[in-house]
Amino acid sequence: MNKTFYKGQKQEHTVNDINTAVVVVGTEDITDLSYTYVRAEKNLESVVKLLSEAKSETKKSISIFVTDENYTERYELARAYKAGLYFVNDTHIESLKGYSSLEIDEVAAQAGVLKNIKRFVASVARQVPFSLSRDQAVKLVGNAVSDLSFSVEKDENPLDLLNKAIDSDIIKYQHSRKINFDSQIVGSFLNHRKPSLEASAELETYAAKIFLQGGVHVLADGMGKGKTKHVIRKLIEAGIDSGEKSTVLTHRIAIARSSAIADLVEQYNDDSIKGREDQLKSLSLVINKCDNERFRVHTHQSGIVIIEEAAQVLRHLMQKDFTGDRIGVFHEILGLIKNARLVLFCEAFVNDVLINYVRLAGRTINFMQGNADYSSINVCLGSVESTQREILRALAANKKVLFSSDSRKQAETVAKIARDQGKKVLLVTQITKDNDEVVEFLANPNDTITKYDVLCHSPSMQSSVSITIKHFEAHFCIFGAVVGVDDAKQFVYRDRTAKKIIVGIHHTRNFSVEEKEAIAKFFGSGDLVFDSIAFQQLHLNALEKNNFQQWLSISFGLDGFTMSRLSSEKNVDEEASKIFKNGRKVVAQMVTKRTLEAGKELSFRTMERLEKTTNDKEYYINNLIDVANATGKIINEVTAKDVGFYNQGAGLTKIRNMKCLLLEDADFEKFRERDNLLTGIDARHYSDIRKHLREVMTTLSIRMDGKGVLTEDGLADACAYIVKNQIDFKMNGLVSIKVGANTDRQKHSLISNLLSKLGLSKVRKMVDGERVYVLNQAQYKRMCSYVFPFSFSSIKRKDWSFQDNIQYDKKSALV
Q1: Closest Cα partner for 656 from 638, 668, 645?
Q2: The domain 185-369: what is its CATH number?
């Protein structure tokens, strides 16, 4: 006997009288299903959404019924609402979590609901070479065509389609690395591919030659050949012997402190060099500081300028979190390239953007290409969850573990899990880089690493560190496109003794805008020389982020690493993922607790941040000051929720977005001027953010007090506005998902994503007997308190509307 619910509404559906833990939802008339079957009468997506929102209460899993007529549409629906799929032949996937799109397509093809061979071929091609080798992909497509009932046109060869797709992806990656040679570049090659006495001697001969020759040189030699020791060190030594000053420029403190040259160079952050910079023989300097007057007295006298990890230096210069005057630094380095007697760019992975920057100096470029042989190293590619599984197994087996990640939080989580097991752990991150034990390790890696069972590091430890003694028994990396492809490859070679590294790579979810016109519009600085390079670098960054999983996998293969793939164990992987999530949660709670504890020692409202933190306690003091400044609170009023919000991700950006939305014109101008975010490559276009946010909120019928109902018409109109201006919304960081508004799911997803950039969300509630969406009022009040921290409870506004023609009920206003 069927029961009907929500009659006359979009959520109207019937339910059979079978009560099972699995609920199957569809629009078809099915009578013989052994599970509870829900038939959507008017709108399938609305019913799926309704049931998925109630899962936590009902404890029932939701699956969507699939036929060959609706597979593509319902697959996307299942992904969106974390539902499973129930196929017409009774095959059932209760949860899509842990399955790749290819694995789902395979099941669908076997169930007879996937007929489109082009979709299947494209799905296979996307997995090469990350989860499939080319040979495996060819075999998979060939077998599928033979065994399954695909619809194939007479002139359509599936294997040709597959090979073209794979080749196209490889060519796209190779094009991003292509160097365009011309008369300004003089090219030559190194002979030795593997580290050896002969290879070291060749590099030292090269160093001696270019020291005498002078000019601009680019050394593009692979990882692990000893560039720092056998070239950079030799040039510094030759300069000291001849009385010629030298400067080493790089983008990370850890590289500036490289043990290979630390005894020869003074450190820029050593207090003992203050006041005697003009007397230094050699200086190691991060680029952020190179335009400071106190260092110019040395750099402008340097006949030798060495730029280590040069391509990454340029990438770092263009990143949004760069601290310093990026245009000033850009021109300062360019001036050094033009004027120094000898300039060396050292990089394992040179790209054309770097070469084009060097070209600006107008000098002949001597390009030395080296090749490394990585065939003795096996890179085992796998999902993040499977990699986490293997990390837990290695720790349980008491193996010595080296873990690398482009995420500080991932490194902290592994460190937490290992410490809980009683292991001695060294954690190297941006936070711990000045801690005594980390400084000791970076100065003498081989002498100190044996003290530890586990080494966990973020990008703060890179090519400056080379571990050459056999100590670690298991090596792991996890990447999420925080760094670029070439930067990521540096992680796998920190331990020169490693023979196998398991590498987990996240699939890209948030896509960057690649259009060169959009990049020029949003990041143009007005400095044509600077922009000419900046736009190229930002375009390359976007391409890498959007294709990160596949490009990193392709690059490993092209660089000669042997490759294997880590098989998934779905149930075990899911458990490993839960352990890591719980670990991250505990780490976050610990950070919050210790940050608040730091406040007990601060009896005043604000204080200067410590420039250098040498222990965890000092870091938490800085973190508390950052939270207080961002939220506008005094130190002793900062709460655990404030710290959690600020640290969970982009907290400061969300507060700034809310200020764009809420502040009156005069206060907005003061805020914009104070933040000084409309200069150079960091231009955030706050006026555009303000205009777009207010337009969307008005269209959604959300008032300045946060009240209002998100109607279907308002939702549709707001999404249409975002789609029309999607480049603006993407480039200003107001949305971070693929922009689309064709279905209810896409509309709700788009608005939810936008609200998340304001620290807000929408919730469903009953109003006058109808289920409607409104803003989460607790979150809205919290964000308002950050925008108006000292007068939140008493502030008066003559007009609390986003536009003059919008009225509001003063009785319901928050403030």
Answers
A1: 668
A2: 3.40.50.300
